[in-house]
Amino acid sequence: KCPPGSYSTKINGVTECKPCPVGEYKDTAGNQTCTPCPANKSTYSEGSIHVNDCK
């Protein structure tokens, strides 16, 4: 499972954890995708773990 702030992606058949892109966050561990920030808000860096990181 990927830790909070990252999501699971498959590259050449190998599963890797990648940080959530700017503008998205993930506050739980697991392989689900990251959640986009609310409208007109964005994160400042990759790997954000909380909606409060969206400014």
From TrEMBL:
<feature type="domain" description="Tyrosine-protein kinase ephrin type A/B receptor-like">
    <location>
        <begin position="5"/>
        <end position="54"/>
    </location>
</feature>
<dbReference type="Pfam" id="PF07699">
    <property type="entry name" value="Ephrin_rec_like"/>
</dbReference>
<protein>
    <recommendedName>
        <fullName>Tyrosine-protein kinase ephrin type A/B receptor-like domain-containing protein</fullName>
    </recommendedName>
</protein>
<dbReference type="InterPro" id="IPR011641">
    <property type="entry name" value="Tyr-kin_ephrin_A/B_rcpt-like"/>
</dbReference>
